[in-house]
Amino acid sequence: MHSKWTPIVPNNYTVPKQYQKGEWVFSQLVVEDIDEDYIAVTASADKLRGTFDFFIAWPDKNITKEEDLSNLGWHQTEFGMRTSFAYKIQQVRKDYREYVGCAYIFPSNNPAFEIDAYLWVKSGCEASDSTLFELFVTWIKDVWPFKSVNYPGRNRKK
């Protein structure tokens, strides 16, 4: 188990800022994503509540854009500190990229696992959830240095 401020990847590991497979792109979640993220979070708030076992009340039904911006800033800071990693997920369309959800890699509070990996899709994109989840699992298995991964709420462990 890691402390909150301990990097979860080795110093010599190059953390991917982006991963693309076909029409799907995972990119580092940053404060500049606030407009799309806020729309996705607020539109999906009811289904998101309870997703994260360490913060079951998130997002509050009245989450403000400023609160979401603060969350994005924290994700960006932790990414730089290598203590957790947050990614936006987009589907590449002909003329644009549609924001469909987020994926996270956090240190696990369960000593049996190195990390907890979460993925959610915004309301209206549920048909893509299983495809994106399998892509996420494969990316972690093939690219990341973790040997024991927990996927809370997904009944799948590596």
Your description of this structure?
The chain has a single domain (18-157), classed as 3-Layer(aba) Sandwich (Aminopeptidase), CATH 3.40.630.30. Helix 1 crosses helix 3 (65-81). The chain has helices at 34-43, 45-48, 65-81, 129-143; strands at residues 18-21, 24-28, 85-92, 97-107, 115-121, 149-151, 156-157. Helix content is 29%, strand content 25%. The protein has 158 residues and is an alpha+beta fold.
The largest β sheet comes out as: 7 strands, mixed
CATH homologous superfamily label: Gcn5-related N-acetyltransferase (GNAT)
| Helix and strand pattern | EEHHHEEEHEE
CATH class: Alpha Beta
Q: Classify the secondary structure makeup into a structural class.
A: alpha+beta
Shape: globular
Number of strands: 7
Approximate strand percentage: 25-35%
* Structural domains: how many: 1
Mean pLDDT value? 85
Low-confidence stretches: none
Distance between the termini: 16 Å
Provide the CATH architecture. Answer: 3-Layer(aba) Sandwich
Number of helical elements: 4
Q: Order of strands across the widest beta sheet? A: 1-2-3-4-5-6-7
Under CATH, the topology can be stated as Aminopeptidase
Tell me roughly what share of residues is in helical segments.
Answer: 25-40%
Radius of gyration: 15 Å
